[in-house]
Structure formats: structure tokens, C-alpha cells
Amino acid sequence: MFNRQGVKLAGAESMTLIGEDAVVHGTLSVKGSLRVEGMVEGDIADAVTVEIGKKGRVKGNVAAETVSVAGELVGDVCASRRVAILAQARLAGNIRAHSLRVEEGAIFEGSCSMRSMEGEGRP
Q1: Which single residue of 37, 50, 58, 115 has CA 20 to 30 Å from 121?
Q2: Would you kindly state where each structural domain of the chain is located, as residue ranges?
Q3: What distances in angstroms separate CA 7 from CA 11, 44, 48, 106, one per listed residue?
Q4: Are 69 and 52 in contact (CB under 8 A)?
């Protein structure tokens, strides 16, 4: 986000949108947030937040702080914070995350490894 003078505000991150009609092939390195409403065939790396919308499809591995799936993801997920698989979503792959939420109606096919974040004092 920017102020009236066009200066980027502290703590504001950029949002990249892959629209419904878009098809992306290859690795995406996103420094801010990414919302996928179209199709991505390839890995997604370095993101703060990855949101896969209801019509979104990703075939590849995802690495981010937080990942939210409302559509379909076929690939492994590594999240330093949390993963949410929303109702009607499908995730086929392995998950490594601090926190996992799977809503009723979601499909998760794979394994999950959960670990605490450093500095929390939990095992």
C-alpha cells in the first residue's frame, strides 16, 4: 500500500494475482502475497502468503509463510506458519507446517509433519 505521495507504507506487501483465464508455466518467486484464481504449473517459492481461490489450480510445490487452499493443489507444501485447506478444496501432497487446519468437506491426500516455530518454547 502507498500513501498519497506514492511512498510505500511500512509493513505493506505487494499482492500478485493470477486471474481466472491465466495459465502460468514455470517457477514463480513472489516476495509478497500471491492469489491464484487461474492455473499454475510449476513451483511457487519465497511468498509471504499464497491463496489458491475456489477456481484456482496449482500443480507444483509451494513454499510460503502461510498457504490457504480453496481450489486444488497437487504438490508438496512447506509453510513456516500455517496451512488451511478450506471446505471443497483438494490438496494432494505432503505438508510441512507449524499449524494445519482442514475444514469439513476438504480432501487431503498425503502426510503432514508439524513442527513448532523457533523461540516459542514448545517441542
Answers
A1: 50
A2: 15-108
A3: 12, 28, 21, 41
A4: yes
Amino acid present at 87 = A
Task: Render pLDDT for 61-91 as a digit per residue (tens, 0 to 9).
Answer: 999 999 999 999 999 999 999 999 999 999 9
* % of the chain with per-residue pLDDT over 90: 80
- Rounded distance between C-alpha atoms, residue 88 and residue 72, angstroms: 9
CA distance 78 to 118: 16
61/93 Cα distance (integer angstroms): 9
Q: What is the pTM of this model?
A: 0.84
- Cα Rg of the chain (Å, integer): 15
CB 84 within 8 A of CB 64: no
Q: Grid coordinates standing for 104?
A: 469439513
> What is the length of the chain?
123
